[in-house]
Here is the input.
Amino acid sequence: MDSNLDMKNYKLSSGSSVILDLIRGVSAQVVVLGHGISFFAIFPLLQQPYFPELQSISVLIFFLLSGFLISYSTIRKKTKIKSYNIKYYMADRFSRIFSAFVPSLLFVVLIDFLSQKINPESYSYSSAYNIKTLFGNLLMLQDFPLFFFLPEKFITSFGSARPFWTLAIEWWIYLFFGYLILVIFNNNKSRIKLSNIILLLIVSIVPMFNLIMGRGHGLTIYWIFGLLVYVVSSSNFLDEIKQNFKIFSLFIIVMFALLRAYFQMDAYDPIFAFLLAIALWLIIDIFKGINFSERMINIINFISSYSFTLYLIHYSILDFLHTHFSSFINSYALFVFGFFISNIISIALGRFTEINLTKKVKEYLYKTIQNDET
Here is the structure.
């Protein structure tokens, strides 16, 4: 069967979809754990030089998942919905990202403002707490490559929200991938307009820079690994292999990945990333025929429903606790409190933004597009 036809007809099973939600939710929790043990200097065996940063491993997993899921959803919608185009794609991506990002950014503005009021001398992010950086983050210009040559215009993550740098890379990859698939490759005309090429070049700056450089040492490559997982998953190649052998293979791959991580001590090592991509491929296939109970699905959906918000704001919460309370509260107690308060605040904020607000923004954008097209 034609591989392109396979990709168009490929559909995630319920079991595979649920396990991906679980991986995303757990990975967000691991980021909190990783930053927590780093802030409060606890559990030394889970830190370098004994093991790579847990939070960085989770970032790598996020990019693998993103590459798989964005490729899958885009190709599927393009195939099943005749009217689906770059406008609807941008509505999908904008509503998903900014509905959680803007409220999270405002939260960071407030918690950092409070931190400065309590003790201005202890606040470490004054150079990144300003209007220029705020609007630069809203435009996804964190660590924008061209600014490396203009130090006075360089924009970093806003305030204490250090994880925001990954969001900018994701956003520009989304723009590049969507424009490439839905405009350039979808152009029925024999000639592509010069304006199309110029726009493609503009949105390719960040993805191309992060192929081999940038923070994360090639995160675009790892996003592409996720895309490749989608391509090979759609081939159904593993259907002919027994389940027990796939489970055994997954165990071996994970062991090799852990050994590679231990000896390289680099969460962004390309071989480690490639092994995790193979593991993801096997996991998706292994859980293809597994049915989760409704109770388990609800639990997993709940854990994943606020994971994006948790990723965005936890660092600022942990930094606040470390800055103002670590001198007189036990590190382990502060770590546990920080973990739970990060989750509680993220649930309160994320359940509203990631579900309700995202849906409303998406519906509004879709309606606006439909009105413009009629």
In short: The chain has a mean pLDDT of 92. The two ends are 38 Å apart (CA to CA).
